[in-house]
Amino acid sequence: MVAAVSRREFFRRASAGAFARTRPSSKPNILFLLTDDQRWDALGCMGRPVIETPNIDRLAREGVTFENNFCTSAICMTSRASIFTGLHERTHGISSFTRDFTPEQLSATYPQILREAGYRTGFIGKYGVGNNLPAAHFDYFKGFPGQGRYYHERNGKTVHLTQILGEQAAEFLASTSDHQPFCLSVSFKAPHVQDGDPRQFLYDPALEGLYRSDSIPPPKTAEERYFEALPSFLKNSEGRERWKIRFATPEMYQRSVKGYYRLITGVDAVVGSLLKLLETRRLLDNTAVVFTSDNGFFLGEHGLAGKWLMHEESIRTPLIIRDPHLTSSRGGSRVKRPALNVDIAPTLLGLAGLEPPRAMQGRDLAPLLAGKNVAWRRDWYYSHLFQHPKIPRSEGLRNHRWKYIRYLDTEPVYEELYDLESDPLEEHNLALAKQQPAVLAGMRSRLMTWRRRLGEWDPGRRWREPS
Questions:
Q1: Are 428 and 225 in contact (CB under 8 A)?
Q2: Residues forming beta bridges with residue 154, ordered by sequence position
Q3: 110 and 362 in contact (C-beta within 8 Å)?
Q4: d(CA 220, CA 427)
Q5: According to the model, what pLDDT value does residue 182 have?
Q6: What CA–CA distances, in Å, run from 165 to 170, 184, 210?
Q7: End-to-end alpha carbon distance in the chain
Q8: pTM value > 0.85
Q9: Quick one: average pLDDT of 232-246?
Q10: What is the biggest distance separating any 2 CA atoms in the chain, rounded to whole angstroms?
């Protein structure tokens, strides 16, 4: 873990330093849309035609889709802290629900940097980092700290939270000025479950008929044999406990997945209304729209539910960027190079023509957006350090072919190694089978290089990924 003084010093320097303009053109508006627990393939444009997401699919047609986007920690508060700051978990230190940003950290988040640069900033929805809401640091703030409630009563009728967030976003957009650029962050609760409610997926009742006649095929790795192959600490984990209340029978599986899809379609309707409002106000041609999620979600794969682990279903998320200056030349493009949640903050700043703080660990995705063939990351580091008696802590390393996972609380150490090229569903743990020993040794060494580099993080130097 990086020493607290180093984090404070970074954020002090970042907030005191000048964030130089890198592009002299007029500043575009920014609409940042974040869902909760949405896996990468839960969109029509990502190859799942059963789910109705026409408005997000439109963003993909007019923008650039990153097919390999990942979170560097699959839990909401940690991932959101990385999205805000462009830093890894081992640097920002947000690994619990009660940990707030320090004032220095908050001042170096993308909304605060944009506000200092003259942007009108708004935040709506699930804030998700600690318990102290930074309302005074935004021009418009309608955030809530954690779970929130899906169903609200208004004038004797039930109103869904997603609709309320859409109304608040419309209110913000209606009050914007043509003379000041804005950055609006809308952080949906959907498609996260309502923890503690036996119904789990509380979608808008107006969507009850949607997907009713569809039959959703379960994933291959939902078969019992894949669960039986897990080590005992995963068989008895929180992921299995939540599987029991969501996917334990075919009927439960259909009900849960359709509820999950309905929540996403509800978000899509709000995205459509916001795009229409931007068009009506003639703002869309100067508004960058970024759509992503904080982490993925197991839909019964390996006999599990939830997230937390480093399997693809848990860490891979959608990312679509509609840059209005590239729609004619890059609309509908797909990028295969890996993008990360730590790339969001520097990319949003780059869209605004600002240079990110030197010590941000993510990268501005602008070269990939523009279709340039540039040197890019060779691998990336994952960590899940949240303390929970039934959620194992882990870390790992992923590159274009191999994935290495190391669980931190087992004795002896339990490892996983997957050849994603020949085994994309992660069916065969090569570490357990004692196969590919040279690859395993190399991945272990490389992971320690990453961990050491994060531990040696210098707030006064430009961050460099291990070469």
A1: no
A2: 157
A3: no
A4: 10
A5: 98
A6: 9, 12, 21
A7: 21
A8: yes
A9: 97
A10: 66
Residue tagged 């508006």 (tokens): 29
User: Which runs of consecutive H residues, i.e. helices, occur in 175-285?
Assistant: 224-228, 232-235, 238-244, 250-280
Q: Please list, in sequence order, all residues whose beta carbon lies within 8 angstroms of the beta carbon of residue 217, skipping any fewer than 6 positions away.
A: none
Report the b/e string of 300-326 with b at 16+ CB within 10 A.
Answer: bbbbbbbbbbbbbbbbbbbbbbbbbbb
Find the mean pLDDT for residues 202-219. Answer: 96
How many other CB atoms are there within 10 angstroms of residue 16's CB atom?
10
Q: Give the strand pairing for 64-66 and 333-335.
A: parallel
Structure token pair of residue 297: 């979600």
Report residue 71 as tokens: 């979170």
Which of 72, 48, 50, 71 minimizes the C-alpha distance to 60? 48
SS3 329: helix
Please say whether the beta carbons of 303 and 313 come within 8 A.
Answer: no
Q: What is the DSSP letter of 161?
A: H
Query: CA 104 to CA 106: how far, in whole Å?
Result: 5
Residue found under tokens 């009713």: 212
Other Cβ atoms closer than 10 A to 198:
6
| Helix (H) or strand (E) run with residue 346 in it | helix 344-351
Kindly report the average pLDDT of the chain as a whole number: 93
